[in-house]
Amino acid sequence: MATIPTDRAPDSTLAFLRAGYRFVGQRCDRYGTDIFQTRLLLEPTICLRGRAATELFYDADRFMREGAMPARGQRTLTGRGGVQGLDGDAHHDRKAMFMSLMSPAAVRRLGQLFADEWQARLPAWELSGTVTLHTEVASMLTRAVCAWAGVPLSGGELDRRTADLQAMIDSAAAIGPRHWRGRLGRYRSEHWGADLVEQVRHGKLSPPEGTALRVIAEHRDGEGRRLPRRIAAVELLNVLRPTVAVARFVVFAALALHDHPAWRQRVRDDDAEAGQFVQEVRRYYPFFPVAAARVRRDFDWQGYHFPQGRRVLLDLYGTDHHPEVWPEPERFRPERFAGWPGDPFTLVPQGGGDHVAGHRCAGEWITIELMKRAVTLLTEVIRYDVPPQDLAVDLSRMPALPASGFVVTAVRRTG
């Protein structure tokens, strides 16, 4: 039996926070392998990257999600008791609830709501002179996804709800004030969501059939039980929060158009190339760095032993930049997706494997739809200038974003 290479440090938590998205990949390169073990938060942890590792990681017979996410992440990003931490029949039931929301028509409807919000903001952008794209897109996505989900949102609530959802996203791997802002955002949002669920259950609020709020509030598990109000709130936020997080991908799409201006015309002229561009943005730019699981029972893989209960991290960013999977991974080349077969274990910014039965993000189609809409809006609907600013993307900050949030000026309609 081969020995898994071991990181020398007694605990690598601080090193992980310093290296960020490159932590796993740097050590895999150092040891000449796609697997090593270390300690994170003082717990033994196996780290993996690559296609074979991704296929292994999403094998539900070998891995489980219960207890994999550190408590800090549950208190900010995901919440406690949500679909991300479930296994077996409980996961299949809860995942089916989410997948019922993701019909092609429903996904297109959310895309149209987002585009309508964008168009509605244009007069203010034209007057303001300076627009920070990330701030604006997050706000538009909050309003759009709430309307789509059947969640009432008064004008006075928009800024507060956007800030809380953003705080949860921004605190995913944070310490200090960012972490505490995320916890506060989580606390307030869960109370808000639980109150909405109770209003639906008591007939005080009647969201349209098929909307997320109604589906989640009325959902019953295999034994006919409703979700506890707090868990229902967590799952409602698991619709709203990831959608608002797509603001980061929209900003990265704008950054890619700025850095590779030849693609502005290409995405306008050819829908297939627009799709390739969106996929390359998802591959190339950092979203979330890793996914976590625990070994369900002892097993051996490629000569390495995985003991029961051991925490395992899959390097999402490293797999999306693996040279054996993606030739010239540090070059932005959308044409690599021409004829791409859609392998579920190679492009994994939102997880890998199967959407229906596995832990791949149910909202991936929403992400792609919103990004396509944004690319169309950025290239066909408006023109703008990009003034000098700090567009550096710090890979030690998780989740990452251009430092300036991508500022544009002199916004004007093309027509």
Overview in brief:
The chain has helices at 13-19, 23-31, 51-57, 71-78, 88-99, 104-128, 133-149, 158-170, 177-201, 212-218, 229-259, 262-269, 271-284, 316-320, 364-381, and strands at 35-40, 43-48, 63-64, 130-132, 290-295, 299-301, 304-306, 311-315, 382-385, 407-413.
Q: How would you describe the overall organization of this protein?
A:
This protein is of the alpha+beta class and 415 residues long. It is 50% helix and 11% strand. It is built from 15 helices and ten strands. The chain has helices spanning 13-19, 23-31, 51-57, 71-78, 88-99, 104-128, 133-149, 158-170, 177-201, 212-218, 229-259, 262-269, 271-284, 316-320, 364-381, and strands at 35-40, 43-48, 63-64, 130-132, 290-295, 299-301, 304-306, 311-315, 382-385, 407-413. The chain has a five-stranded mixed β-sheet, sandwiched between helices. The longest helix is centred in the middle third of the chain and has 31 residues, at 229-259.
Q: List low-confidence stretches.
A: none
Our count of helices gives 15
The H/E string reads: HHEEHEHHHEHHHHHHHEEEEHHEE
Taken as a percent bin, the fraction of beta residues is 5-15%
Number of distinct beta strands:
10
Overall mean confidence score, pLDDT: 96
Taking the alpha carbons of the first and last residues, their distance comes to 67 Å
Helix content: 40-55%
Q: Which strands sit side by side, in order, in the main sheet?
A: 1-2-8-5-3
Query: What Rg is obtained from the alpha carbons, in whole angstroms?
Result: 21 Å
Instruction: Give the overall shape.
Output: globular
Largest sheet geometry:
5 strands, mixed
- Helix/strand/pairing class, anyone? alpha+beta
